[in-house]
Write a structure and sequence with these properties.
By secondary structure, this protein is of the alpha/beta class. The protein has a single domain, classed as Rossmann fold. Helix content is 42%, strand content 14%. The protein has a seven-stranded parallel beta sheet, sandwiched between helices. Helix 3 packs parallel to helix 4 and helix 4 packs parallel to helix 5. The longest helix has 29 residues. It starts with 5 loop residues before the first strand and ends in a 15-residue tail after the last strand.
């Protein structure tokens, strides 16, 4: 009988993380769902535990000690994590560098870069010990191309790209797969967060064309996780058909 793999997903309470949790539950993965919003985690656990084994950890990836304490609190049945999906991340603000908000800069670097590192740091030793595992880092086209007013957000996602490449090299000797998925425009809470809850401005981002949805990215994650042992999807950029680059989008308005 094939062992059910254990997947830990950060940012599981919305968007890509939530869609991925649902799809992996339908495909016989046991799940460790992580996020800041415990009420959402609890609801998702109640829904998905009808399909598979689910546990939750509520913490903020920015808080190094909280990350360590949460992951170390897992009992022995959950500690041999097979899959880590570093999905937690956000954009804060869209301003030129000369008028950027330092608090926004801190948030993006702390969540997108340091948070990914803190979570990975807790999980990698077990994968290395077992000489197996798969890490999927959710990047962005902003980690491949900069765009006006994207400055620090783009820098944080360029860092994710660089860290992913470094992981792939450092973990190669241990048989650990490392995948990066870099989406273009995906309709999630992303723009609502970036524009500080301004619904009109956030909704305008997705008008006039068909953006990707979180389920599209979840589908690619499942694809990467179900390749044969000798195959790794290393680096994947995905756009909606209407998008050609960070700044070129065909809109019918």
């Amino acid at each position: 009988m094939t062992k059910q793999r254990i997947a830990l997903i950060t940012g599981a309470t919305s968007g890509i993380g939530e869609a991925t949790a649902r799809l992996l539950a339908q495909n016989s993965f046991n799940l460790i769902l992580c996020g800041r919003r415990k009420d959402r985690l609890d609801r998702l656990q109640q829904e998905l535990q009808k399909l598979t084994k689910v546990t939750t950890l509520s913490f903020d990836v920015r808080e190094k000690e909280n990350v360590a304490n949460a992951i170390q609190s897992l009992d022995d049945t959950w500690k041999p994590i097979d899959v880590l999906i570093n999905n937690a991340g956000n954009a804060h603000g869209l301003a030129p560098i000369q008028s950027g908000d330092v608090a926004d800069w801190d948030a993006m670097i702390d969540i997108n870069v340091k948070g990914l590192l803190y979570v990975s740091h807790e999980i990698l030793p077990e994968m290395v010990k077992n000489n197996s595992g798969h890490i999927i880092n959710i990047g962005s086209i902003a980690g491949k191309e900069t765009y006006p007013n994207g400055n620090v957000y783009c820098a944080s996602k360029f860092a994710v790209d660089a860290i992913t490449k470094g992981m792939r090299m450092d973990l190669n000797a241990h048989g650990i797969k490392v995948t990066a998925i870099h989406p273009g425009l995906v309709e999630t809470e992303f723009s609502k967060v970036r524009f500080k809850g301004d619904e009109e401005r956030a909704n305008a981002v997705y008008k006039g064309y068909q953006p990707l949805n979180p389920e599209d990215i979840a589908d690619l994650i499942l694809f990467a996780l179900t390749r044969p042992a000798h195959v790794v999807v290393a680096d994947l950029v995905v756009f909606p058909t209407a998008q050609a680059s960070s700044t070129i989008v065909k809109k019918n308005l």
